Amino acid sequence: MRSTIIIILTLFSSIFAVQAQQNDVYKVLEVQVFKDSISNKEVQLIDVRTPEEFSSGHIKDAENIDFFSEEFTNEFDKLDKNKPVYIYCKSGNRSKQTGEKLSAMGFKEIYDLKGGFLNYE
What we know:
single chain, alpha/beta, 5-stranded parallel sheet, 6 helices, 5 strands
């Protein structure tokens, strides 16, 4: 009985440690913090909206990698996983999903713009 409890506690500890580690990788930033973080710095800034949305306006120096594109994963594989990546979409939904994918792909630091591009201006 005692060994069963220890195994269960160890399992729960491992699960929570992995979740905490993933949360350390992906962070949602308030607009001003996001702006300060990307201003006057060379960063990996990615807009995950469609090319049409991107062409109607985007953050300066952002690269467009369409969330819905078949090349989505291949395009992110070209980035440096050890350098911070800043992502945004229109409202925050696609960038949140992107953050989860990037975390699973091994990116070490992922920063998402809270509220997306709609909240940026």
